[in-house]
Each structure stands twice: as structure tokens, then as C-alpha cells.
Design a protein that fits this description.
By secondary structure, this protein is an alpha/beta fold. It is built from twelve helices and 17 strands. The longest helix is centred in the middle third of the chain and has 18 residues.
Length: about 475
């Protein structure tokens, strides 16, 4: 068990959050590590930026970031046919690496775009399952971004730009396993009774990346073929929480072994695109993609494979309403560009947050997540002064002269407003026991506060 905690902790929205820095020391076991509250910054910022970039960005076609695996296993004929048609027979995956040129990579531009989008933290792919490190790791000879391809420290350059130009918390994604690393395959053949890969590769590079770049968010992945004892996960996390340079602010997830997902660790990421649709006991994260199919950039993706802004905002509203954070992924081209479709979605989201961010940032789940009468409505709440403000995020603007919601219970002092609109709204109780009928005035298009997903604010409700 953990030692006595000396800092105050509060329970908010079904998850534990820091209220001050703790002097606790955690032991390298789940009983102790699971007691660590999640630093409160994470629950306040709500939105993260997930960035997939690697050697897979060169073929940038079928199966995205999983291209190498799908090609080698021949599970899907598209990859094999693509290689047979376009590359010589002896071409290897490693031959793609010099083509990861990154000549258009401008970390300052990225940082400015992420700031404009309204995100609060990043998860930049430091290393995916292909094993290629986007920093000059001492433990990845000739398979990192300094030795081959870009010939620069991609991770370090982005970290520096974000910290210099924004208040965004810099974080990383890191895969524990590597598909074709011979040391890993040897451990796997030995039924994980040996740990050559962990001891000589994974753990040294993880300590290296934390000490050098000080990420405040670590999205661990690639854990599913072995349990946490093989990965030495609890030892690393105990160091991370106790002695690392980010010990007081770092947030982790739950992907530390095939026995830890949705059970142990920090934030529950469970599976990709996690979206339970209701409150759960632990803080959780929806790691999702604007490209509906894959995280890595795909040159051949049709427009229909990308989320519309309406779809993106609907996922954002549902996720935050149910107590989660949303981690929004974009894929990067081999030459370091964020393509216009991703930039457009991020800027559209930022414009929406400029008007409606009050309903997202630093909010907590309300007594109801979605409405009891009207579909496409999700609620959030926030303490303001001595009262509680409740926000109803509606996906469809009412076609008639009224909007009826079942969840709010009004009082004689209830005030209804629309974020970004100057006037309050008239209303009537929907019934003696609850609900509200909002009188909808005519609002010219030129005076509408935003184009999508409008937010009604309620003050002085009974619930």
C-alpha cells in the first residue's frame, strides 16, 4: 500500500484529482500506484492532440501506421499488391526510412495550429510498433530520426516549439513492443521468461525520453502480448511518480500489460475510440482519429473517410459529458505537413471553442449526461461563484419556435442563455415535475454565435 498522503485530494466527476502537490512515495505495485490521483490539469484541459508520424508516413496508404505488419503477414492483399506494383522485389521496409524527409516540418507552425485549435496537451508518437524513434535515441542505432531520414530531432524540436509558443502540455505516445525487433521475438519465443528486449531496449529508451524531454503525458501502447511483469511496468511507473523530472504533473494511461487495461494505471484508455456513453469510475480518454479508419496519414483516403466538423463536435460533447478527455489524432505526411483537411477541422474546432469553450474546459459531469426527451443533447456543468452552471450542447438547431428539454428542473430564478448570444431566453416549465420549454426567437444567420453545435447555459436550476 502507499504511504500516508499529505496533500489534499478531492473527488470530482467520479475521478480523483490533485488539489496540491503530494509528498507521497509510491511502491512498484498496482495496489500503491492505483491510489495516485490524476493531476487536475488533465481533467481541466479536456482536449489532446494525437500526432502519428513515422516511417509508415512514407508509403502512407493501406492500413496507415500498420502498413508494415499487414504487408509482411500478407493478411490483406492490398498491401502486397501495392508493393509488388510499385517497388522492386528486394525492397525492404527499412528502405522507406530515407524517404521520411521532413523538409516541410515547421514545429512553430504546428504549435500555433494546436494553440488555435484549443487543445491542452499533445501525444506525439515518439515510437510506434515499427520501432523507429523520432528522437536520437542511444538505444536505437540507425533506426531513429537523427541517423536516417529527417536527420533531426523531431520530438525535441516539437517540444521546444510548443513550450516556447503555447501553454500546451507536451506529451508523447510510446509503443512498448516492436513487431520485428529480434530481441523481442526471442523473448516472445521463450514465452516471455526472458527480458532481453525490455532490459536492453524498452526501459532504457523510456527513461531516456522522460529525462531528456520531460513529457507531462505518456500514452503507453503495444502492451497486449505480455503482462506488466514482463514489461517491468510498475517499476517504471513508480519511478515516474516518485523521482522523475515530471513526477508531480505527469499523467499516464492504462496500457502497461495485457492484464492492466481498464484495470490498473492512470487514465483509462482501454481500447481505441473508447466511448462508453455513460460515467465510469475512473477518468478515461477517447483516443480517436479524424480519419475514421487509421491514425497514420493515407494518401488514398477519400473525403468520406474523414469526420465532418459536426461529427467531431458531437464526439467531443459526448466524451466530455461522460467525464472523458478526447485525444484527437492527425496523421503527418512524409515531408512533415499537416494536410488541409486536418488543419481545417482543427481550426473549425478552435473557432467553436472560442465561443463555447466555457461548456468544455474545466467542466465536470452533471447529474444527467444526455437529455431524457431530445436526442443529440449532452450536458456538462461548472461551479461559478456560489452556484452551478449547466450547459446543454445541442447538435441540431430547433426547427420550430421552441426547444423542449427533459433533464433541467427549473426554479423561479432560472436563467437561460445561449453562449455567444447577448440576450437571455424566455422559458416555461415543461411539466410540474421537471423539464423546460425554451422560447426560440428569430436569430438572423449573421447573429448566430456559431455554425454548429450550439450551447444553452442554465443558471439557478433545482438540480
Amino acid at each position: 500500500m502507499a504511504l500516508k498522503m499529505h496533500s489534499a485530494v478531492q473527488i470530482v466527476g467520479a475521478c480523483m484529482l490533485w488539489t496540491s502537490v503530494s509528498s507521497i512515495r509510491y511502491l512498484p505495485n498496482w495496489n500503491s500506484l492505483d491510489t495516485r490521483p490524476i493531476p487536475s490539469w488533465y481533467d481541466d484541459v479536456k482536449i489532446g492532440m494525437y500526432i502519428h508520424w513515422g516511417v509508415f508516413s512514407v508509403p502512407s496508404t493501406y492500413y496507415g501506421e500498420w502498413f508494415w505488419y499487414e504487408w509482411q503477414t500478407s493478411k490483406y492483399k492490398e498491401c502486397v499488391q501495392f508493393m509488388n506494383k510499385n517497388y522492386k522485389p528486394d525492397f525492404t521496409y527499412a528502405d522507406f526510412a530515407p524517404q521520411l524527409t521532413a523538409e516541410f516540418f515547421d514545429p512553430n507552425q504546428w504549435a500555433d495550429l494546436f494553440k488555435a485549435a484549443g487543445v491542452g496537451y499533445t501525444a506525439f508518437v515518439a515510437k510506434h510498433h515499427e520501432g523507429f524513434c523520432n528522437w536520437p535515441s542511444k538505444y536505437s542505432f540507425n533506426w531513429n530520426s537523427m541517423d536516417v531520414g529527417p536527420k533531426r530531432d523531431l520530438l525535441g524540436d516539437l517540444a521546444a516549439a510548443i513550450r516556447a509558443r503555447t501553454n500546451i502540455r507536451f506529451g508523447i505516445y510510446h509503443s512498448l513492443f516492436e513487431w520485428y525487433n529480434p530481441l523481442y521475438l526471442e523473448d516472445k519465443m521463450n514465452n516471455y521468461t526472458t527480458q532481453k528486449f525490455v532490459e536492453s531496449k524498452v526501459m532504457p529508451e523510456m527513461y531516456e525520453v522522460v529525462n531528456k524531454y520531460k513529457p507531462e503525458y505518456i500514452f503507453s501502447d503495444g502492451d497486449w502480448e505480455a503482462d506488466d511483469t514482463y514489461w517491468n511496468s510498475t517499476e517504471f511507473i513508480a519511478w515516474l511518480y516518485n523521482d522523475s523530472p515530471v513526477k508531480d504533473t505527469v499523467v499516464t494511461n492504462d496500457r502497461w500489460g495485457n492484464n492492466s487495461r481498464c484495470i490498473h494505471g492512470g487514465v483509462y484508455a482501454c481500447d481505441d475510440k473508447m466511448n462508453p456513453g455513460h460515467l465510469i469510475k475512473r477518468k478515461w480518454e477517447n483516443a480517436m482519429t479524424i480519419d475514421k479508419q487509421w491514425a497514420g496519414f493515407r494518401r488514398n483516403a477519400p473525403l468520406s473517410d474523414y469526420l465532418t466538423i459536426e461529427e467531431l463536435l458531437a464526439i467531443l460533447a459526448e466524451t466530455v459529458s461522460c467525464g472523458g478527455n478526447i485525444l484527437i489524432n492527425i496523421g503527418i505526411t512524409h515531408d512533415g505537413l499537416i494536410v488541409p483537411i486536418f488543419e481545417e477541422r482543427l481550426r473549425q474546432m478552435g473557432a467553436w471553442l472560442d465561443v463555447n469553450g466555457e461548456s468544455i474546459y474545466a467542466t465536470r459531469p452533471w447529474s444527467n449526461q444526455n437529455d431524457t426527451l431530445t436526442s443529440g443533447v449532452w450536458y456538462t456543468s461548472k461551479k461559478q461563484g456560489s452556484g452551478l452552471s449547466v450547459y446543454a450542447i445541442i447538435q441540431n438547431w430547433p426547427t420550430g419556435q421552441t426547444l423542449t428539454l427533459g433533464a433541467p428542473v427549473t426554479t423561479s430564478n432560472t436563467v437561460v442563455s445561449l453562449l455567444g448570444y447577448p440576450n437571455t431566453f424566455r422559458w416555461l416549465p415543461a411539466s410540474p415535475v421537471g423539464g423546460i420549454v425554451i422560447q426560440m426567437p428569430y436569430i438572423p444567420v449573421s447573429r448566430m454565435p456559431c455554425q454548429w453545435a450550439w450551447v444553452f447555459k442554465f443558471q439557478n436550476l433545482a438540480n
